[in-house]
Each structure stands twice: as structure tokens, then as C-alpha cells.
Amino acid sequence: MGPLLALGSALAYGIADFGGGLLARRAHFAVVALLGQAGGLLATLAAAPLWPDRSPTATDLAWGALSGVGTGLAMAFLFRGLGRGAMSVVVPVSAVSGVALPVLTGVALLGDRPSLPAWGGIAVTVPALWLVSRNGRGGGRGTGGAAPHDPAATTDALLAGVGIAVQYLALAQAAPEAGVWPVAAGRAAAVVVVAPLALAGRARRSWAPLTWPLAAGAAATGVTAAGALVLYSLAVQQQLAVVAIVLSSLYPAVPVLLGLTALHERVTVLQATGLTGAAAAITLLALG
């Protein structure tokens, strides 16, 4: 059950990133991130009292808040990168650092000991994600033709990966008895982190006109991303954190595939190889 929950987390995160990336091309990236985290906060606050296990300690909430700091920074940098770069590059590159750092930390500091098949899946995942990102000339800036990829967007993606690593590692430390409250604490912390960026954009008058459909869409991406974190927190209770992190970090396959079908991005041989490697990683990690 643990691998399925982690894969469900990857699917939800991939959908949220795809939607958020499109919105970040039509509105200020920090506004999209702020509305998304606010939507996730409201959703988790509504769901938390209904959760069967809901006895969070101050430590659980602190880990959740630290996770939210990582989430806020990750979403801000990710959406900025998506606003000026190709989706098929930015999302996978953010995942490379987002999966590598937690895995190394889990093995070196947390005592995780993956099985041999799981090690094989871990070994395959990072190069697979790197190969998926090798489409720097592809499209994705809009609904059709190709557009150049801004190299600064790759830097944004790497910084987003650091935030993703903090998010996963911190949330994995919360006790199962805490229920959804650590995720709710994280959404509150993420709002606090992202709000100054949104206010700074407003002060510079760099906000694009924000319509109600855009605002609702941004909030919906946050609700979906919060759901992804809930699935991840459930998955990490049933298996090694390393395995849950790696499986959850396969989410770049979703925006890449949606980019191919919905945005008519072009897939390269290297990208196809990377997607095949991601499928192999899923199989190996599920066996582990």
C-alpha cells in the first residue's frame, strides 16, 4: 500500500505543478504560490478534525512548519522558473535535487537501509529525471509552438529542489498520530514565507491582472498539492522514507506527459529514455 500512496502523491503533485505552471505564465508567480498555499491551508484545516489520529505534539507541528518553509520557497522558485522556462525542463530539474538530497540525508543521518531492489530504483531515478530534463529547446511557453528556455529558470529549478528536499525530510519526522495537522502547520508556514514575495511584487506593480478564475485555479492547485503531501505522509508511515521520497519525486513525468499531449511539446530520444527509466524505478521501488 505504501508504494501506491507515494505514487498517488506523485500524480497529485504533478497535476498541481502543471496547473500552477500554466497559471504562473498569466499571473505573478508569488501570487499563484500564495493563493495555492492559502487554498491548501483551508483544505487541511477542514480535513484535520475529521482524521482518525489527531494528537499532534509541539514537535510534530514544528516539523510540519519547517516542511512548509521548504514548500513555500520551493513553490515560489518553481513557479518563477515555470513562468520563464520550459515546463519539460524546470519541473524535472527541480526534482533531481529534490530527490537526491533527501535520499543522501536519509541514508547518512536517519539510518534508512533500503533493500537491493530499492537501491536499484534509487540509482535509476536521478539519471532518469536528468534525462527527462534534456529538452531545453522544447516548447511549453503557451499552448503551442516552441519557445527558448531561459537558463535562469534552471537556477530557479535547482533552488526549488532544495525547498522540496526540506519539505519531504521535515514532514517525514512527524509522528503518525499527528494526523493531518503537520501538513496544516506547513501550509500556514508556507503562506507566511510566500506573502512577502507577493507583497513585494505588488509594491513594484509587477502583478498581472488577477481574475477570479485565475485565483480559483491557483487555490485549486494548492489543495491538490496539500493532498499530495497527505498521501506522502501516509506513505512514509508504511515504508522507508527514502523509498517514499523517491516514488513521490517521480511527479515530473506527469507535467512532461501533459506537456506532450496538451501543450504539444516535442519529446526527444533522451526524454523518452528518461521516462522509461522512471517506469523502471517505480517497479524496482515497489519490489523493495
Which radius of gyration do the C-alpha atoms yield? 18 Å
Q: Helical percent range?
A: over 70%
What ranges have pLDDT less than 50 throughout 5 or more consecutive residues?
136-147
Main beta sheet: none
Count of separate DSSP helical elements: 11
Order of helices and strands: HHHHHHHHHHH
Number of strands: 0
- Overall structural class, as computed from helix and strand content, comes to mainly alpha
- The count of domains is 1
Tell me what portion of residues adopts beta-strand conformation: under 5%
Distance between the termini: 12 Å
What gross morphology would you assign?
Answer: globular
Average pLDDT over all residues? 82
Q: Explain this structure to me?
A:
- The protein is an all-alpha fold.
- It has one domain (2-287).
- Helix content is 75%, strand content 0%.
- The chain has eleven helices and no strands.
- Helix 1 runs antiparallel to helix 8 (212-236), helix 2 (29-47) runs antiparallel to helix 3 (58-84) and helix 3 crosses helix 7.
- 60% of the residues are buried.
